Amino acid sequence: KTITDKDALYEVEPGDTLINIAKKFGTTVDLIKEANSLKNDTIQARAKLKISKEKYKILIDKSQNILTLLGGSDVVKVYRVSTGENNCTPVGNFKIINRIVDPVWYAEKAIVQAESPENVLGSRWMGFNLPGYGIHGTTSPEKIGEQATKGCVRMLNAEVEELYKIIPIGTEA
Q1: Closest C-alpha to 17, from 40, 34, 126, 8
Q2: Are 27 and 51 in contact (CB under 8 A)?
Q3: Is 152 annotated in the active site?
Q4: Is 84 known to be catalytic?
Q5: Which of 134, 136, 156, 160 is catalytic?
Q6: For the whole model, what pTM was predicted?
Q7: Read out DSSP for 8-44?
């Protein structure tokens, strides 16, 4: 509940929604809800909300199979991940351009629904501005820490869900 220099105290205006507030501040609805102990998306005009102004960045180290979440220049958390077999995960500066809960997997010869055990994407998808690549969950947790993907960055589902709550569209990766 403490407001730091990385936060803003925002007074809800009539007609505001959590989605609009999140876009205004470059954050996520989930992070606003968590910071303010909100159980649902209902907010009242003139309520005061703690809003994170932190700018996050993701660094991926393929040599160690780790993803580091930075808040400004501070390390927020380090996650073990899987990257592409034969070092095929692309290198470069990317941005998160979409975020999907329970993504459908468009495999080479099939469309695999989210609830299917054959869907390798797990519970979350955060897509890069490089078509077909992103950060996602997994149905093979035993492969975390290995070069085992077709090029994406794969995380444990609980950890990708945690990251998904924090990372807005536009985050550098």
Answers
A1: 40
A2: yes
A3: yes
A4: no
A5: 136
A6: 0.93
A7: EEEEPPTT--HHHHHHHHT--HHHHHHHTT-SSS---
